[in-house]
Amino acid sequence: MKLHIIGCGDAFGNGGRNQSGYLVEAADRLFLMDCGPTTLLGMKKAGFDPRRLDVVFLSHLHGDHFGGLPFFFISYLHESARSDPFQIAGPPGTEEKVVELYRVMYGGDIPPIRFYTLHPDRSEVIAGIQVLPFRVPHQLHAVSLGLRFSYEGKQILFSGDSAWTDDFLTHARGADLFLCECSYYDRHSTNHLAYKILQGHLTDLECRQLVLTHLGEEMLRLRGQLGVVCAEDGMVIEF
Ligand SMILES: [Zn+2]
Ligand SMILES: [Zn+2]
To answer: How many A from CA of 83 to the centre of ligand 1?
Structure first.
């Protein structure tokens, strides 16, 4: 299985990186974890036909993580029609917010979409992919999720945007890949992870590979000195 880093940037355009979009390619499945505004262009740059996308899983409803969906909709309507409905799974409120965003940006027809609501600690199978969502500390008044995927014997843990939670230790156990946000180096934050906090847990993380993403300015500057793998746009990780 492969993880294509379509976009590993934060909300502020730091490092000139695309915003969140992570494409998982299995033998017979193609799915996205998050869909920031630059995801369609990043997918095309990586050589993928957007019609191949089976499902998009959203960790939370911040613009840098779901704001790219309307571009897929207009692409399916006017350029690359799909033969099956587009599938989108996300936290409570996903359908309302996605439809509202599309109305503001383009309005008019929306292509056929099947929406799924992900509830914390309720495992689902969507497009044959098992996903276990769990709540993470990021938003106060809305649900932000970490997502643990299982498909064809491989396990991926995606933190979404989040401060540290010991739930990462539980869900990283046995995972082939843990894609973990790390916005800050040593800034105290209750909604994003700082490397200094993560560092104290590194030896307890029982995953096979750890990749840091969503890096802010200071992390971008220091990433070469930390001895951990940090995502870059265009990077392909096999696991
Ligand atoms: Zn973000
Ligand atoms: Zn966020």
So the answer is: 32
